[in-house]
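Field: COMPLEX_INPUT
Field: COMPONENT_COUNT = two
Field: RESIDUE_TOTAL = 225
Field: MODE = joint
Values follow.
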Amino acid sequence: GQNIDQPTEMTATEGAIVQINCTYQTSGFNGLFWYQQHAGEAPTFLSYNVLDGLEEKGRFSSFLSRSKGYSYLLLKELQMKDSASYLCAVNTGGFKTIFGAGTRLFVKA
Amino acid sequence: GAGVSQSPSNKVTEKGKDVELRCDPISGHTALYWYRQSLGQGLEFLIYFQGNSAPDKSGLPSDRFSAERTGGSVSTLTIQRTQQEDSAVYLCASSSQLAVSYNEQFFGPGTRLTVL
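Field: COMPLEX_OUTPUT
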């Protein structure tokens, strides 16, 4: 079966750091994506990991451990505009991609 | 166009009617995806196309759902005899074949379907 787990909601303070975890159990693995989705809008791409390790892109970083079936998205220097849902997604082979239910992040002042 | 477009943006229909949802992908993108998102939920995979063929239709909820893609471009998702549980936002995305595994998806704005 295919299973991607993320926390449902998280709350953090403006200027702080937050880590959103994702664990997956899939029949195949060809890479892991993180997408950001603001309320009422379409998802937009944030990051891609296919090898173990940390990928850094500005305030956002994403980590992958394939042996543990684990990834996290790290957001630094949180801003109010970072309030959104963060979707973990796994390419299970070819072009097929399975999405997690998403983590809704609330950033408070 | 510059991005993925979908039409209509909103569709209200009566239970039992058929609906057609359209997706125009980014020009040159070989892969096209359909997802369904219920309020406050994640994305439910429905189907994806590689060119005009659909290697994986396993996500289609029932035989009332079908999709086609012609000319490697526009795709239509058809729902026959709509039911209230079909109410959701239907998202389309496309990606280019830069690599076997890397398929960053570009999403359209979605079609919000309401079945009364």
